[in-house]
Amino acid sequence: MSPSSPAGSRPEVGVLLPAAGQGERAGAGELKQFRPIRGVPMLLRAIRPFAQHPLVRQIVIALPAAFASRPPDWLHDLMGQRLQVVAGGATRAESVALALDRLDPACRIVLVHDAARPFVSQDTIDAVIAAAETGRGAVAAVPVGDTLKRVEGGSDADRPTARPPDRPVGPVLETVDRRGLWRAQTPQGFPRAWLEEASARRGEAEDVTDDAQMMERLGRAVVVIPDHTTNIKVTTADDFILAEALASR
Ligand code: CTP
Ligand code: MG
Predict the structure, then answer these.
(1) The model scores a pTM over 0.90
(2) Mean pLDDT by 10 residues, the chain (249 residues)
(3) Per the CB 3.0–4.6 Å rule, which of 115, 135, 164, 198 could disulfide with 214?
(4) How close is the Cα of 39 to the center of ligand 2, in Å?
């Protein structure tokens, strides 16, 4: 911490970690967020960079209800005033709202980070906090590098398993212009009041898929923080292969 910006002069930060999903696309076995990556549970990897941050006052983790009442030992040992656990809800937005309810009122800036992103870097966290401190929403994101096709037959994004490659899907309807397109990641950071309003209004928009979207709709300034492509979201069994490789760097 530099002398010109002592922690006391900056708003305190709270972190919400939605970790209450069922990990269906990751397949059967141990719950995705508890599964070890190079020996360290994914959720623990996601917690650490925030737990070490000097501006973070509190972390609230939303877990599936059965685990909120009986957290794994490695998590139980860390719990206290600074790290709390709540039962999550049926949707990610619900889990974020329930975690926000528990957050210490002293936290004026709130970061939301998926437990399924175990490789977030310190510089991304710093930049998200710095932007949120200036009264804007901030979304870690990477520019789209692939060519995008809109395909008849809908999206595969939420399918439980990958589609077998021997069954073509289509036809292609168009190639989408990727200029200006970014893939939203987490963390996403906001002035607390914005997230409270967005959470209170979550019932108005079923199609909202990240925390910033409702704020964009409300006309609030949201900026993108260029993030590392290594901040992957672990979704499928294949992603665990990538995660093991990233953890070996
Ligand atoms: N999440 C949550 N509460 C829910 C659903 C999801 O807290 N009701 C969390 C997940 O635990 C994860 C993050 O939101 O950390 C992003 O969700 P995703 O990657 O989709 O994880 P899951 O919902 O667990 O996986 P799936 O969709 O394959 O079941
Ligand atoms: Mg999900």
Answers:
(1) yes
(2) 56 97 94 98 98 97 98 95 97 96 98 98 98 97 96 72 78 96 98 96 86 94 98 96 97
(3) 198
(4) 24
